[in-house]
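Hey, quick one: can you model this chain's 3D structure?
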Amino acid sequence: MLVAAALAAFPASQNVDLQWAALVFAIAGVLLFVAGLAFRSAGALGLGLAALGADYAVLFVAEGGALDRFTPAYAAGFILVAELGFWSIESRIPAWSDTAVAEWRLARIAGTCIGAAVLAALALIAAAAAAGTGGPALESLGVVAVLGSLVLITVLVGRWAVDE
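Sure thing. Here's the predicted structure for all 164 residues.
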């Protein structure tokens, strides 16, 4: 919950033209996320995460699409909040009392967060290169970052569908 609040606070605290919009999305995101946790509602959690994403998108738009060096950290934090939020509202099963199962799941979450940060960093590098001279090698790096992002999203969606 504190990580969700930190994710919401970062874009909303920046001095940009659309700060009011970022603040609205930040407040809505945190309130919906907390409501999702309190009422064990996947829908409210999802809407809260969408509002947090919109909060960050406002920052991106307000800065004219300028690259933000904190994007990899935001990506990792966002995945962490989503994973832990949905894990916390899942139905409890006897297997969760097994320490090895919990450790395996935490390791998987950590790996996913690291993967999100790495892919976001690769996307930033590719975007920065595209703004400059670019070249085939940097374009290839951008393609790899996009494909990696799609694979990560596919794995997360597939895992969510299996967990349901």
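One thing worth noting: The chain has a mean pLDDT of 83.
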